[in-house]
Amino acid sequence: MNFKNLLKSITLALCIPLAFADENEFKGDCKEIVDFFTERDASQSINACEVDNKGKVIAVDIDNQYITEECFKKTLSYNTIKNRYYTKFDNNPTHNPVYRIIPPEIANLTKLEEFSFDFLPYRTYARTGIADGNLKLPKSLKKLVIRGITASQTNIDEISTLTNLEHLELNYFNRPHEKFSFKPLETLKKVSYLHLRNEGYFDLDDLPELVYNSYKVINHIVIRGHSLTKISDNISKLKNVKYLDLNGNEIENILGKLQKLTKLEYLDLSHNNIDEEIPEFMYNFKNLNYIDLSSNKNIKGKTLTNSKLETCIYDKNYKELCIADKNTKCLEKNNYSYSLCDGTTNNDNDNNDDPKEEQGKELPYTSNGKCNSTDGKCRPGSCCSKYGWCGTGERYCGAGCQKEFGGCN
């Protein structure tokens, strides 16, 4: 049985118990676990189980709907387990789960590489904590996913000991008075995937040191709900980041600091307080596929025209943003009423017989804002001033404008 494929079919297990699979599907250790649970009327709490070619259990997914401590500890008696998934349900009007904790014995699974814990409350605002000592997980762990809790400083301290961790996802509900420090996590230097989401909100002064200390390997960053206002220049170290989501903070200035993040494929900076002009260098992000700059204070300049850009989300309230190329594919489904940038033609085919301009079109787009035969030409919608700089307005598009390197009035 392919455990990863099976997981795709058990989404409903997060809401209601699954109808139990045919016991004949399970072999080896999994058959033994299923029989043990069945004898105790807890079989519906097993969502998935996988064995290796020797019949040894290597992955198990259970919830606490019907199990007792005896059932849970039965699954902890197999030291061959590499992947462990546990969903905890809260009380509801029709059912009161008996078993509610993460037992510390889970640390005995010395081959464990992946552990996932989900708490699903009956009321959305309700949360659970994880008792001190219960996250003393084995050092072999590479992936940790915890969702739906109120985190404590002790939880963070215990996670900081997992120095082989590569994937860390924490989704929690902490109010300002429940604030904790991420500083202990700076010991984790192998994390390539980081997802921190707080649904209760408290302030962070900057991205956690964990992010900067993992700069050589980190490529996926999601940090939401932490009221971030400033991003330090250290973000320029994150040259391998492909996915950056800082949605729902209070960031004021960040676009100009992204120049070294040339591998970006996904960028979500929506719902912040950004008041910036889109910098020229962002047009050269060759892999950028998705960008969301909506719900900010003011985004200025020209819309992006990157060749791989499939989704570009701005905001109808941005009065200082203009369309650099009206044929940009990602703008086709958006209903923005932006004007065309100065120097941008309304025609699909702009025939120009000037041989110098044709020669200019063969140049690459500039990456530093300079326009000349060496640095390249300006992006669509920009003019090249007589001093050799790209921009818009009369200073760039008026007297002395160099039309071989950009548009001119």
What does this entry look like structurally?
With 409 residues, this protein is of the alpha/beta class. The protein folds into two domains: 3-331, Leucine-rich repeat, LRR (right-handed beta-alpha superhelix) (Alpha-Beta Horseshoe), CATH 3.80.10; 355-405, Wheat Germ Agglutinin (Isolectin 2), domain 1. The protein has helices at residues 3-8, 28-39, 69-75, 153-159, 209-213, 355-361, 394-397; strands at residues 46-51, 57-63, 83-89, 114-120, 143-149, 167-172, 193-198, 220-224, 243-245, 266-268, 275-277, 290-292, 298-302, 311-313, 321-322, 383-384, 390-391. Strands 1-2-3-4-5-6-7-8-9-10-12-14 form a twelve-stranded mixed beta sheet. The radius of gyration is 27 Å and the shape is elongated. Residues 1-24 and 349-361 have low confidence and may be disordered.
